[in-house]
Design brief:
homodimer; alpha/beta; Dihydrodipicolinate Reductase, domain 2; 3 domains; 20% strand; multifunctional enzyme (chains A, B); kinase (chains A, B); aspartate kinase activity (chains A, B)
């Protein structure tokens, strides 16, 4: 588009007082587009490259969604491990569908783990990303990734942190400050120091950068988004309570008369339901992180250390030097777990490892509790999570969400849905 | 901002090839703003009114979110009845909060029922909308409402249809064609003729207008949004099954040994849990509408008439001329319902009125079924809805959502959350 019609347009803008705007044009990669003032991210018109176009004529050349009208997103994935790998596979299958049906042009422009990284301007081919990634000789650089995404020709940069690393989450602020959005199943920021959490949330509010973390609680279950919508629409959370660990759900759903606690932990470990060291699950810290997150979502600014946690690791085994030693000694403590189980059963109850937030008292707790057989918590199967939310509107009957709350596929699905949510904030069709 | 710096800016745009855009300025109501090209709806900078500003200087005057940067939404509410009234009350309390915290400037610029309407450019004061509305002498005009919203100074127009009227839903296409978004708990489009449904969905895809209807199934429970996110992220729905009528949930949750079916229907009617004529609930049509909706969300294009529905209205009472006559004669049929209840109880089971969609066979059904006491459907209380969704990822353990699925407050909450979702598509902060 030559200078002269643009000037005409400038005149139209200033003289006519039209609430219109112009983007792109000139030598820019974007074709000129007219925007309505104030609200809509969608252009009212996208112009062709005809050099004789006058401003007035151009406005009449409005056309429906074209390639230039796609939502272009440059994604960096940090931590292509279990969840990251599942996510990249979901991307491989589904990104072409999203592009064709919804106009979302999402490209994976960076991959990194703690050692190396792979950058691309045009998007990494996902059919053989693993070979390419492992063949990369570039050293990992979490600032470099951000700079690369910002330099890509895709205007929406986002980093998806699929690690569980506190080191990585320390970069969120820096990334977000420079306009990069963050999506993560990593619980470290939301359950870490309030100061860092508040700084990230403040950036989210003030800088129009987005920070989504649906998969930090219940994996792909719609927990965080649901609570946020309740709060946004003026409902008031009274309490949130649930079974938030797939591992501990499995263990107590299986712990019935005639079974041994240590045998169940062993089976869970063998099936890959536990962390490499099962003490990481049995200590309750993971559940406490989720309780901290849910408390903050409900408006209670707790620190992880504020939450009393009933650890299921016997005191005597805390200092075992290896998980092998721990697993070997665990049977010595079967009797005391069996006693708890039998006492509960005698009262027609079951044991469940539960996290809860009480908004009125501002307290969170993590503990082993007993529930009658008819209670929703007693009805769980496998590695199901359950979340029970009492609010002004959902009282006395709570809103309850149940389902698999762990596993690479469902966690990746939760992360992916955050990415689609991010696109909506940039005008994606619904 | 005078013409000359704007011209400088135009030069910067064309000569520098910068992917920047300019909105507002001159005599427009919007202060001049610089936009990044391509993606973000948020301005990079909003300028003050200093007349000596040069374009270069102006860019340096970027400031954080200002009033001009608010998301401005003009809402028309059609049908201020039970749900509409609850919604307006939620708006009264929460809209100031959303404006202060999230920069959402949402104003109610129109109200209408079948008789009259009330229009306002600057937003109807919500503390006494009822008096104002009832005092309005303007006749209802569903085209006039659209024209009014489009003429308001708020750039995002939306009509919220809180009626259950097929007549009103016939206007959606016309509204959406002219750029007005539609939000509704009204089931008529999603369960009505496929042709009209497809036309509305096509507009949603092609015209960048939005159509949200979370509250059509399960009221405020996150059902529609969850299924949509699963499908969008590449999961495949296999089946959706549940108790979708708060009324019929209440009736069968209460229908235990020693109770009479007709007594329970009577209590439900007295508590306002049924439609004025309980046959409207007992016929199963409402559940069939929800099954049709869920089938379409899952990718199965069913018509309402494709769904076999087991009606609970005895054949002999279908032709009763009034609900009074129906209620009077219903006790004659208690024996046959008691027989069903006792047969189920003898097998350790309960009766539940269930809707289901089987994606593989492409079929939907609505019928009275028996479930063992341990089944999630047997655990319901009050007017709870439950939805159980089996997908590629959620199999064999389904994703389950339970909670109050009827009532003005929770339904209004579901509608309100759609409005916030709409704002996200226009760049609202998350």
């Amino acid at each position: 588009m030559p200078l002269s019609p643009l000037r005409d347009l400038a005149r139209l803008l200033t003289r006519g007082g039209l609430p219109l705007g112009l983007c792109g044009g000139g030598r820019s990669a974007w074709p000129p587009q007219i925007f309505g003032g104030g609200g809509g991210p969608r252009p009212l018109a996208t112009f062709g490259k005809e050099s004789s176009t006058t401003a007035e004529g151009a406005v009449n050349m409005a056309r429906p969604r074209a390639e230039a009208d796609e939502i272009k997103v440059a994604v960096g994935v940090v931590g292509p491990g279990l969840v990251g790998k599942a996510l990249l596979e979901q991307f491989r299958v589904q990104l072409p569908v999203l592009r064709a049906r919804r106009g979302l042009d999402i490209k994976i422009c960076a991959l990194a783990n703690s050692k190396r990284m792979l950058l691309s301007d045009s998007g990494i081919e996902l059919s053989d990303w693993k070979d390419r990634f492992e063949g990369s000789s570039e050293a990992s650089d979490l600032v470099g990734i951000k700079d690369h995404l910002l330099s890509c020709s895709m205007p929406i940069p986002v980093i998806i942190d699929c690690t569980a690393s506190d080191y990585v989450s320390d970069y969120y602020q820096q990334w977000m400050e420079s306009g990069v959005h963050v999506i993560t199943p990593n619980k470290k920021v939301n359950s870490g120091p309030l100061e860092r959490y508040n700084a990230v949330k403040k950036l989210q509010e003030e800088k129009h950068v987005h920070y989504f973390y649906e998969a930090t609680v219940g994996a792909g279950l719609p927990v965080i988004g649901t609570i946020k919508h309740l709060v946004d629409t003026g409902d008031r959370i009274k309490s949130v309570e649930g079974v938030f660990s797939g591992t501990l759900s499995y263990i107590f759903n299986s712990f019935k008369r005639g079974t041994k606690f240590s045998d169940i932990v062993k089976t869970a470990k063998e099936n890959g339901f536990t962390e490499p060291d099962p003490r990481d699950d049995l200590s309750g810290t993971d559940v406490a992180r989720k309780v901290t997150t849910l408390a903050r979502e409900s408006g209670v600014g707790l620190e992880l250390s504020d939450i009393p946690v009933e650890s299921l690791v016997p005191k005597e085994l805390e200092s075992c030097s290896s998980s092998e030693e721990f697993m070997q000694k665990l049977p010595e403590f079967d009797d005391q777990m069996t006693k708890l189980q039998e006492e509960a059963a005698a009262a027609g109850e079951v044991l469940r490892y539960v996290g809860s937030v009480d908004v009125a008292t501002g307290k969170g707790t993590v503990s082993l509790k007993r529930y009658p057989e008819s209670h929703p918590f007693a009805q769980l199967n496998g590695t199901d999570n359950i979340i029970l939310c009492v609010t002004d509107r959902y009282d006395p009957q709570p809103l309850v969400i149940t389902g698999p709350g762990a596993g690479a596929e469902v966690t990746a699905g939760g992360v992916f849905s955050d990415l689609i949510r991010l696109c909506s904030h940039f005008g994606a069709p619904s």
